[in-house]
Amino acid sequence: MADKPTKGLADVVAASTALSDIDGKAGRLFYRGYDIHDLAGRTTFEETAHLLQHGSLPSRDQLAAYGAELVRGRTLGGLVASNIPEIAAKQEPMEALRTLVSLAGADDPDKDSNAADANLRKAARLTAQQPLLVARYHAARTGATIPDPDPELSIAANFLLQITGRTPSQREVEIFDTCLVLHADHTMNASTFAARVCAATLSDMHSAIVAAIGTLKGPLHGGANEQVMRTLEAIDPSGVAQTVRDKLAAGEKIMGFGHRVYKTEDPRATHLRKMSRELGEASGDDTYYWMSKEMEEVVFAEKGLYPNVDFYAATVYHYLGIPTDLFTPVFSVSRMSGWTAHVIEQHADNRLIRPDSEYIGERDQKWKPIDER
Ligand SMILES: CC(=O)SCCNC(=O)CCNC(=O)[C@H](O)C(C)(C)COP(=O)(O)OP(=O)(O)OC[C@H]1O[C@@H](n2cnc3c(N)ncnc32)[C@H](O)[C@@H]1OP(=O)(O)O
Ligand SMILES: O=C([O-])CC(=O)C(=O)O
């Protein structure tokens, strides 16, 4: 007979990884041993993706080679490109990305190989294509014409330009790039775990990423950032405290708060809060920032909960001009670097992930023919 399960696998160590590490009590996050506070604002998303996928912060030559690979990968295959208009008309953004990445698997030249070199090439292509998929999806549904990605620009700069239709300021690019760095990897979060479970059957990288995208979509995980913005938009600025108290009294969860691992401030929220404030002030209307601050104070006073990465990311993306329903897709643009690195790591030292379950159903049932049931 199996042991009692730990509900939600809380505190269960499900994999070994050299990619990221969290000290939940101290509120610290590390990518391959580098403190997130040292990376944020100093390391680009491209450098971070290289760190995760290739194992080291790149030298100038390595970054040039990886950057060139990303530029080459920044094209869409025929199956994906031809289906975007219909998918954009019929599917919500995260559903659409799940479908489009699946189609991209069929277009991928390395689709039949899980070998280490093929996985690295697929990781770079997926990282390069994800922002383009979001931008092309958005353009198809709005009827906008967007420029092709500029090979001289970073992923962050190209994405903001394609989504907002205007050339972002240098500071906006820096802030968005920092957001991508902050969201890149996070140990055994639900979507990464889903990717690793899929990869551990020796299924391919695109299948694992489809599983991850479907998992990130949920409001208890990456989908929370969109819900944070929808909550802020629905509240009267003068009624923040009362609304939060009413929601809590009704047993509702406040989106963007709480975390399975952090027992103190999420170190990513520290950066996102500052950037939200800066962008809010620069916009001339920082109402959503101040509403967020008030919400943070009330949730802490009432429940002792801290904001997670999704909370201040919402207002940062809002101030950057990103449509609210693309917030979770933006998360996927960044997390693609971590997911793919986890698939590489899983395939490199694989064993099927197949836990046990506790049976709680009926026993000793007596079978009856259908007419006697
Ligand atoms: C990128 C990310 O995935 S970050 C997380 C994004 N998700 C959210 O922001 C959604 C809101 N937050 C939550 O639902 C949870 O805090 C999670 C899913 C993040 C973590 O869940 P768990 O570790 O399973 O904690 P669980 O949901 O059991 O919460 C523990 C207690 O805190 C309460 N709690 C946790 N989060 C919240 C919240 N946001 N609002 C109100 N109460 C909360 C729960 O109601 C529960 O209370 P109880 O013990 O009285 O029943
Ligand atoms: O780690 C988690 O459970 C959720 C999270 O913060 C992330 O995926 O970034």
From TrEMBL:
Record family assignment = Belongs to the citrate synthase family.
**UniProt keyword terms in alphabetical order:** Transferase, Tricarboxylic acid cycle
Question: NCBIfam families recorded for this chain?
Answer: cit_synth_II
Top-rank taxon of the source lineage equals: Bacteria
Under InterPro entries, the record lists: 2-MeCitrate/Citrate_synth_II (IPR011278), Citrate_synth-like_lrg_a-sub (IPR016142), Citrate_synth-like_sm_a-sub (IPR016143), Citrate_synthase (IPR002020), Citrate_synthase_AS (IPR019810), Citrate_synthase_bac-typ (IPR024176), Citrate_synthase_sf (IPR036969)
Q: Catalyses which reaction?
A: oxaloacetate + acetyl-CoA + H2O = citrate + CoA + H(+)
Q: What is this protein called?
A: Citrate synthase
Pathway listed for it?
Carbohydrate metabolism; tricarboxylic acid cycle
Q: What is the species listed in this Swiss-Prot or TrEMBL entry?
A: Microtetraspora fusca
